[in-house]
Design brief:
This protein has 120 residues and is mainly α. It has one domain (2-118). It is 78% helix and 0% strand. Helix 4 packs antiparallel against helix 5 and helix 4 (27-47) packs parallel to helix 7 (95-105).
C-alpha cells in the first residue's frame, strides 16, 4: 500500500482534479491513515480482539476498492464516490500494527508453551 502514498496525487489527478487540488486532496488520506492506525490499535488492545479489528480494517479497505471500481466502471464517472473509495484504502495501513502485534505476541510459540507446561 506504499504505492497509495506515493502515487496518491497522481490517482486523484486521474479523477479529473488539477495538480494543486490533487495535492491538497491527498491530505485527508494521511489523516484517515493516522486515525485508522490509532483507533484500530487502541480498540484491539482495549477489547483484546485483534482478529475482529483486523476484519473491520480489511472490510473498509475492500469497500474502498469496490467503490473505486464501481465509480470508474460505467459511462459516467462518479468523482465523489471514487475519492471516498480512495480515502477508504487508507484503512489498510491500520492492519499492519495489528498483524505485527499478533506476530510478536506469539514469540513463544505453541511448542515452547507445551514444553514449559510439561516440565513442571
Amino acid at each position: 500500500m506504499v504505492s497509495a502514498n506515493t502515487f496518491g496525487p497522481t490517482l486523484i489527478k486521474g479523477l479529473g482534479f488539477s495538480t494543486q487540488n490533487s495535492s491538497l486532496l491527498n491530505i485527508p488520506f494521511g489523516a484517515v491513515q493516522a486515525i485508522s492506525i490509532l483507533a484500530g490499535s487502541y480498540a484491539a488492545a482495549r477489547f483484546k480482539i485483534k482478529s475482529a479489528m483486523l476484519v473491520v480494517q480489511c472490510g473498509f479497505t475492500l469497500a474502498g476498492g469496490a467503490m473505486m471500481y464501481v465509480a470508474e466502471s460505467g459511462e459516467n464517472r462518479q468523482q465523489t464516490l471514487a475519492l471516498i473509495g480512495y480515502y477508504f484504502l487508507a484503512f489498510s495501513f491500520g492492519c499492519s500494527p495489528i498483524v505485527y502485534s499478533w506476530a510478536i505476541a506469539n514469540v513463544g510459540g505453541v511448542s515452547v508453551v507445551y514444553y514449559t507446561s510439561d516440565s513442571r
